[in-house]
Amino acid sequence: MPVYQAPVADTLFVLNDLLRIARYDNLPGFSDASADVVEAILGEGGKFASEVFHPLNQIGDREGCKRAEDGSVATPQGFKAAYDQFREAGWGGLSADPAYGGQGLPHVLAASVNEFMSSANMAFAMYPGLTRGAIAAIQQHGSPEQKEAYLPRMIEGSWTGTMNLTEPHCGTDLGLLRTRATPQADGSYRISGQKIFISAGEHDLSDNIIHLVLARIDGAPEGTKGISLFIVPKFLPDDAGEAGGRNGVSCGAIEEKMGIHGNATCVMNYDEATGYLIGEAHKGLRAMFTMMNEARLGVGIQGLAISEIAYQNAVTYAKDRLQGRALSGPKARDKAADPLIVHPDIRRMLMTMRAVNEAGRALVLYTALKGDLSHLAEDEAARQAADDWMGLLTPVIKGVLTDKGFENAVMAQQVYGGHGYIAEWGMEQFVRDARIAQIYEGANGIQALDLVGRKLGLNGGRAIQAFFAEVGKFAEENRSDEALAPYTKGIKKGLNDLQQATMWLMQNAMAKPDHAGAASNDYMHLFGLVALGYMWGLSVKAAQEKLAAGDGDEAFLKAKLVTGKFFMERLMPETAAHLARISSGADSMMALDAEAF
Amino acid sequence: MPVYQAPVADTLFVLNDLLRIARYDNLPGFSDASADVVEAILGEGGKFASEVFHPLNQIGDREGCKRAEDGSVATPQGFKAAYDQFREAGWGGLSADPAYGGQGLPHVLAASVNEFMSSANMAFAMYPGLTRGAIAAIQQHGSPEQKEAYLPRMIEGSWTGTMNLTEPHCGTDLGLLRTRATPQADGSYRISGQKIFISAGEHDLSDNIIHLVLARIDGAPEGTKGISLFIVPKFLPDDAGEAGGRNGVSCGAIEEKMGIHGNATCVMNYDEATGYLIGEAHKGLRAMFTMMNEARLGVGIQGLAISEIAYQNAVTYAKDRLQGRALSGPKARDKAADPLIVHPDIRRMLMTMRAVNEAGRALVLYTALKGDLSHLAEDEAARQAADDWMGLLTPVIKGVLTDKGFENAVMAQQVYGGHGYIAEWGMEQFVRDARIAQIYEGANGIQALDLVGRKLGLNGGRAIQAFFAEVGKFAEENRSDEALAPYTKGIKKGLNDLQQATMWLMQNAMAKPDHAGAASNDYMHLFGLVALGYMWGLSVKAAQEKLAAGDGDEAFLKAKLVTGKFFMERLMPETAAHLARISSGADSMMALDAEAF
């Protein structure tokens, strides 16, 4: 069975030494997040993930969710009891609004705990994960009455949430959606239609399920400008606010999937279900994007999370399994063979995963902190800058960390040789689970288009210019520091490639939009490498300062310097290949007629 | 359900126009392979693959193989009847020795048919695939009596074969193996021990199963120098040569795997089973390598095969599925949305798969032809040169085409969005099936080490020098041809990077072998890109000549020019990144103590 231990020390390094969150202790939430409290929460969260979520991970995969004839869905054995523990411990409300029963801690802290839970059991962590997205949408777009009616129970965890976007004929292209909403005299709507791929659509973990559903009000404009968002509870709240009468929504089937079997992915049928408009009519996409952005960051975290647990198990196996002798001469002379970890190609895989995971964690938390600051920072300019970073980096984190997460799960599986292909070792489950993260909440190609087609040009390129300035400044300020030079050199080279690619897009994509589409995937990954490289720069600088001060775990800090160097040598060279591909344009890609395929 | 149509036209282009196999019509086997015969065999083979193998692919995945309490194994519904058809049609003996009932056709032709069968149903195609490996070992190392006893029935297909190498504690490191062989008075041996991961180890398709088993004769030297190869039939041949008494070998369990569920992957228990030494005592590894090389090329073909069928289905979906509008303006104005294929990022994925598949097919067949010539060519120098190419390219084909095959299956799945993750569409099965090809017959890290640590230096580097000379000559001879220049430029650049990487290894790996290990994976992929790029050079040149002569399907030939250009623009740039990684050496990779992980 796979092992898992939450990377608490590395998370504390990022929060305390790289982000120095103590700086913000004058802000709401942060004032409650003293170093002691943060350490205690991460320790407890990690323990909960290892001890409660993780033991159910393989069971969940094997058993899957089962739909009964009446449309009810049973989660795998043990899920309900574990969810009760999760709810009772209050993990769901960590960063939620205290006005509705949340603990009001910073999102950056909740993001860490989310990583741990997703590593331990991704399919399970999705139940509260989707609830968080629904909470965010109601918090931001709901009326005071709606907030009062739904938020306390969702934050407390006795009610869960879902997102309903996809229909059989439309996923990415929501303009095509057909689910309709008919206004009723009492101000509510009757919702009818079919939604597919609804994660946590129906299950037995909570007393009620609050569906957020995109639908078209009768007579609304066609396309995306006629879509509204509705709250459709499984049980309509009664006068006391408790789950009351059954609403006309039901699970028609559970999808048979490649992975995340512990999560019920449902076909949801809406048959004149009662729904309540949330936010403005016809502006549902805007409200949905609140959930989507929250969810996209969460999916990026899933990529990191699977990569982390896959890495931990690959390390364990590489230390345990004896096979062959080191190229440099036997290492474990007392044994029949050396452990796998002596072999360079095994090291290549372990170091690659490690270099991505540690920088990925830094990037996620750096960005989650910006999320906090976008609301809390004291001056408007700081709030705007933080919001710009969030908007720019969200597609990068979603697209790049899930692509890397999958690649790393595959790499970790490879370390196991034949045993990696066998179900009982658990490595192939990580591969199957990780795969979905590249697809849902906007397939990664859509993330790349969001970055290139939308985020780059927003507000005259303000966000990307700020990013260039920040990374460039770091490289410039530290390049004469001999100890940092090997790192700043790599960052600078990557940044140059990214700037050149951006310039190429500016000069070419306006005249021929296909050039932007043809470049988008490479551009996103080039961007990701520069962002991760920058995180390595910040990490190494923080580690060097602590080493110079004789403060902290020396082996841990020195490993940062080595791993950062590995990143610059082994991952950063890819930026030039991305630039070359981007600059080749769309011509050969688009030249063939569809019939030629 | 997925579709499949064998790429007969492309295969004919490779055989007739690129390889020009008609040149060899004076050689045995080739003399029977006239253009008509080749076309008929490919047509029939493709039809058989589509109509008989393919309809069982999803069934096999869903049902898997089942072991009964008595150790017998049932294959999925329909497999037995399909195997009977396969056997009766004589597909198993296509290139086998006519002296034992084979048709004696060139291996290059059998390799094509093997691709089709593996695309249609990889798990099924493995049953005859492993038999071919066993046939090769017996043919090359068996005594005349052994050949007589086993080959006719194996070639005919009524008996099948297996390879038994792996034990629970040893896979790559065969020196550790413990299965023992005790000599008997009659010259036979008693074989005892346990083997795992034995593909097609037990099943109901054939009347007998001939296991080729590595074991250590009592008192043999330790390590790999004390390993011998044995024939261990499930049923001992009786006096009439028919399957007689049951031997002491049985299936202890079927592994629960990520994919290839249609193939029975068995734990095999040998309990004083009767075995017959094949080849010399203690030289079993050499004999086993005959099977391994055959098998490694076959596994490379599996990578190509899955990539091809995944590509075909991605194309179908991309043409059918309507979603979004082209960046360059609506294309299907009469419909609610444009088909996916208008989107550059979808094209990027389709073109990448296509560019790899077509060059991969050319490389496989180019190499399979060398396999034929290594036996059949009239002068010794030509045989040796062909054998050198085979040895050098086998690890490249195995490692690179299976890595690319998996990546392409993942890419094809991505084209489907959420539907790609759902079992019924069949795309996720391709991903799960393709994954094993990177692991078995020597994990790809072992292929890379074989290339860098063994094949490069063999005979003073004769094979690699010949490869450099051949590719360099092509680039040089054609660089002044304006129509070919865009291609030769890419090939030349890639070749330069490969030569530099080779030089770096020569200068650094001797003093520090870890540098070779650290470089090996990148070197193998760099090599693969140059080899595939060279195939594109040859393909484009052949296509241009045919176009100039007004001979052949113009759209098909022009598509070659476009796809080759895409390869140079989008895949070849990776060679520089590989070189940069290789030149960074092993230091940061190996710097951390095992305890730091």
TrEMBL record, chains A, B:
Name used for this protein in its record: Acyl-CoA dehydrogenase C-terminal domain-containing protein
Necessary cofactors: FAD
Family: Belongs to the acyl-CoA dehydrogenase family.
Record domain Acyl-CoA dehydrogenase/oxidase N-terminal: where: 80-157
Pfam families in the cross-refs: Acyl-CoA_dh_1, Acyl-CoA_dh_C, Acyl-CoA_dh_M, Acyl-CoA_dh_N
Keyword DNA-binding: no
PANTHER family assigned: ACYL-COA DEHYDROGENASE (PTHR42803), BROAD-SPECIFICITY LINEAR ACYL-COA DEHYDROGENASE FADE5 (PTHR42803:SF1)
Alphabetized UniProt keyword annotations: FAD, Flavoprotein, Oxidoreductase
Residue ranges occupied by any Acetyl-CoA dehydrogenase-like C-terminal domain in the UniProt entry: 467-593
Domain Acyl-CoA oxidase/dehydrogenase middle stretches: 163-271
Domain Acyl-CoA dehydrogenase/oxidase C-terminal: 283-451
Keyword NAD among UniProt keywords: no
Domain of life per record: Bacteria
